[in-house]
Every structure is written in C-alpha cells, then in structure tokens.
Amino acid sequence: MKLLAMVALLVTICSLEGALVRRQAEEPGQPDMATMVSQYFQAMADYGKDLMEKAKASEIQTQARTYFENTHKHLTPLVKNAGAELMSLFSKWMNPEKAAPDAAK
Predict the structure, then answer these.
(1) What is the residue range of 87's domain?
(2) Is pTM, for the whole model, over 0.70?
(3) What's the CA gap between 30 and 50, in Å, rounded?
C-alpha cells in the first residue's frame, strides 16, 4: 500500500513538473528564433556603422597610408629582383644550349 502511494505521488510530481516546464517554454516573454536572428543582424549592422565612423578618422587613414608606403618601399626591390630572376630562368629554359657552356665552366 505504501509503495502504491509512493508511485502515485512520484507520477503526480513528475506530471506537475512537466506541465510547469511546458508553461515556462510557452511564455510569450521569450523571443522566438526569428526575433533573435533579426536582433543579431541589427547588432552587427550597428557595429559595422560604428566601425565605419571610426575608420573615417584621419588618424587611421594616415596610419594606413604610411603602412602602404613603407610596404611599397620594401617590396619594390624584391619584386624587381624576382622579376629579373624569373626572366633569367625563362631565357635559360628557352635557350638551353646557351646555358650549357656556362654550366661547364
């Protein structure tokens, strides 16, 4: 008899807890997935606008210009050297008989 009463009490508690969980899940205060996604995209759009406003500052533009000028200054000789060596490689590849005497020396 005590076992039957315990089982009935356990079933009642579980069903009440399940109903409470369902009721909490159905509350209108919680946003649905579409609302959450739209809020996410709105937040990202606002962040992008703020970032663009910061990027308009002359300090960032000056830093970027300086960086590109320094990069150009350092990379130009490397690119010219690589181009010269590439042309030398192509000329040796296209005229192997001229390259052979050089290798024999």
Answers:
(1) 58-105
(2) no
(3) 29
